[in-house]
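User: Hey, quick favor. My workstation is busy. Could you predict this chain's structure for me?
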Amino acid sequence: MKSSDPKNSSDHNSSDDLSLSIIIPVHNEEDNVEILYKEIRSSVDPLNRPYEIIFIDDGSLHRPMSVLKEIKRKEKFEKNRNFELRIVSFSKNFGQTAAMQAGFDLAQGDVLVSLDGDLQNDPRDIPGLIAKLEEGYDLVCGWRKNRQDKVLTRKIPSKIANSLIRRLIGVSIHDLGCSLKAYRSELIKSVKLYSDMHRFIPVITAMKGAKITEIVVNHRIRKYGKAKYGLSRTWKVLLDLITLKMIVHFQHNPLRWFAFFGLFFGMIGFVLGAEAVFLYIIGVHSIVFPTACFLTIFLSGSLITWGLLAEYFISLEKK
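Assistant: No problem, here it is.
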């Protein structure tokens, strides 16, 4: 990863007086970045607080970096020293979660705001998110109540996923997938994201005792570029959801999680063993059922052993 401007450059604001960081991952959004930049400036400049905009170019194949560098060149001649534009470029496409994590790590503000680079999130909602956060919340999520996306491939799967997550995890946020969020710096910097976990930030921070709320935000029709995600991402999200379910409900007692699956496979092994014995009694000699019985019983024992080991390591950490 390379950055176009070193963190310790002397002509930039110091971390002591910078209060707001706006983080925007972009990938092949060359038609959007300049428009988005101007919209953010017009929305945030009136707040009269020092802030920075951090664009993370996630290995774009086209030319958003050249557009951003030209904006950066013009920004050097500004008299507004309350503002700083920072640009980060990935050598290849690592994904939105990695781009957001890089932005969170680099951000110097006390308050962080994230949004997408496709112009569907409205920067005019940023002041409202910040105002809500300053009421005493740690995280404020945007809720795209009137979402402007395709019904079959985006809206319906999103509603099903959000409903499922609310039931399984117990976080009462309507729109976990909305990138437009405001965070307290100390909260989000304590979170390390991987896979597609950026959409589960409310769940992860809730585990840390964060005070979370949401506000309705404007969502706009995409004008330029193509959507990066579709139905193909569903399986990955489901796997991440299973991982989160395990972390949320079994992080302090992992043996329950492993024992649940261990006993499940143990019961299958018992049924397969009984079938193997029955076939042997009636004179049918087959290696399939005994082998399957051995494998499932072995897996059952392994899972329970892993659960016991996890319990042991957790007990060591508590000491």
